[in-house]
Amino acid sequence: MFLSSSFCDVVSLFSDFAGEEVKGKRVTFIPTASVVEEYVGHVENDKKAFESLGIIVDVLELSTASNEEIIEKVTTNDYIFMSGGNSFYLLQTLKEMGADYLIKAEVSKGKLYIGTSAGSVVMCPDIRYIEAMDDKSFAPKLTEYKAMGMIDQYPLVHYGCEPFTEVAEQVYQEYKDKLPLVLLNNYQVLTVQNQEIEVLSI
């Protein structure tokens, strides 16, 4: 797993981590977390970052896709990417569409998962910790906040970076003694490989 706050800012680290020729590979690009956000420029920036590596971007919008489309794109493409946006809306949609189990199964089989911001947050055990940063009212059907649980750590994204400086510090102060937070600024990435966890910086 390659978990960042801002994929386009750490794309230079990706090819080495992937450990293979990435040109010509296909990524299932899931922009769902951004659907409820006003600013979505980061989605286009991340898309361009993949394209700069010669990776073919195959967009999958979970909220409007059919089950068949979700299964096909998640299982057949080489990588899975989930963009930034609202973590609660993303988790709600993943659960509604059953994509959470599908993605977990693919990652468990060894498929490379790439997350940025909300896409990184949902890999932790429970996303309640991020509610100061993300508005949970966008996910009214979400009755509990148990997330993908693919990592034991809790990524605190955009730490020390505007416009999230104050709210990220608020989350840190509230949870630093309660949860194993991993602080990630926009130029760092949390990598998970063979159960080994490492934070890389540009």
What does this protein structure show overall?
The protein has 202 residues and is of the alpha/beta class. 33% of the residues lie in helices and 20% in strands. The chain is built from eight helices and nine strands. It has helices at residues 7-10, 14-18, 41-52, 67-76, 87-97, 99-108, 118-121, 165-175, and strands spanning 2-4, 26-30, 56-59, 79-82, 112-116, 154-157, 181-184, 188-193, 196-201. A seven-stranded mixed beta sheet has the order 3-2-4-5-1-8-9. Strands 6-7 form a two-stranded parallel sheet. The longest helix is centred in the first third of the chain and has 12 residues, at 41-52. The radius of gyration is 15 Å and the shape is globular. The two termini are 17 Å apart. Pfam families: Peptidase_S51. Belongs to the peptidase S51 family. InterPro entries: Class_I_gatase-like, Peptidase_S51.
